[in-house]
Amino acid sequence: MTSSTQKDPDPTDVKLADYLCFAVYSANLAFGKLYRPILDDLGLTYTQYVTLVAMGEEDGQTVSGLGEKLFLESNTLTPILKKLEAMGFVDRKRDPENERQVRVTLTKAGRRQRERASSVDLKDACGLSSQGFAKLQKEIVALRDNLVHAVRDDA
């Protein structure tokens, strides 16, 4: 059995391209550029798009529950929902059983817009097979969840 005597690289020698956080950040920017013309045609921002997608998963969600799903604070999500409501895609109503909660639902127009937006398929642009795409998505979710837990553990 042999042992490795390799040392970790000197942190000052690590290039920006070698940082995982930068790879994720720059991939996010690339996704944004890819989505922009598609979403511009739909009249949506990326955050509005993912909000419609998340709302389509469960009707009548609370704003706080939707925020948790989207990793958004209510002070960020509320203006998005107000804009989607003004566009005719979302209804917001106080929960009659708990007036402190606001429930959001997609309107018929919102469901149609979600269907149009859901036709976006980026597997080809990612250069991945269906299996590779699914595997990478699961790995990124695991990475995100680990980071969220690390932040919570440190708090």
From TrEMBL:
Its main location: cytoplasm. InterPro entries: HTH_MarR-typ, MarR/SlyA-like, Transc_reg_Sar_Rot_HTH, WH-like_DNA-bd_sf, WH_DNA-bd_sf. The keyword ATP-binding does not apply. The keyword DNA-binding applies. Keywords: Cytoplasm, DNA-binding, Transcription, Transcription regulation. It is found in: Cytoplasm. Pfam families: Staph_reg_Sar_Rot. Residues 17-153 form the HTH marR-type domain. This is HTH marR-type domain-containing protein. It comes from Cupriavidus numazuensis.
